[in-house]
Amino acid sequence: MRIGAAIFVFLVCGVVGCTQETQNKIGRAVQNWTGTDGILEIYGGDKVVKRFLKIDKISTAASTSGTGSRPYRFGYGILDTNLNGVVDKGEKKVYFEFSDYSTPYVFYENPQ
């Protein structure tokens, strides 16, 4: 029992001692392992103009020189061409990118 408690304290101290970026990477690794079923909706005014289904993650682009991130996100998802919220025959998984600054979007977990 004492060994288990000592291991737990050691792990907690290790995570607390990590930088925020390392903690984020650990969180993303856990999320990637458990999986998600996200939906990304892109808006043009008040209408949905693109919808991507079955997204497991959206990543922020890393800077190629320097330490900052780039102002866009990317991922893979099934393009919902008819915007009905269901993966239909013929709808394919695609790569997508969108700007953090100029793209109105909502990303959420599939409630079904």
Major beta-sheet overview = 6 strands, antiparallel
CA radius of gyration: 18 Å
Q: Gap between N and C termini, in Å?
A: 41 Å
The backbone outline, from C-alpha atoms, is extended
Count every beta strand, where a strand is a DSSP E run of 2 or more residues: 6
Number of domains: 2
Summarize the amount of helix as a percent range. 25-40%
The helix count comes to 2
Proportion in β-strands: 35-45%
Low-confidence stretches: none
H and E order? HHEEEEEE
Q: How would you portray this structure in words?
A:
The protein folds into two domains: 1-34, no CATH class; 35-112, no CATH class. It is α+β, with helices and mostly antiparallel strands and 112 residues long. It contains two helices and six strands; from the N terminus they run ααββββββ. Strands 1, 2, 3, 4, 5 and 6 form a six-stranded antiparallel β-sheet that branches. A hairpin with a 2-residue loop joins strand 1 (38-44) and strand 2. It is extended, with a radius of gyration of 18 Å. Helix content is 27%, strand content 39%. It has helices at 2-16, 20-34, and strands at 38-44, 47-55, 58-62, 69-79, 93-99, 105-109.
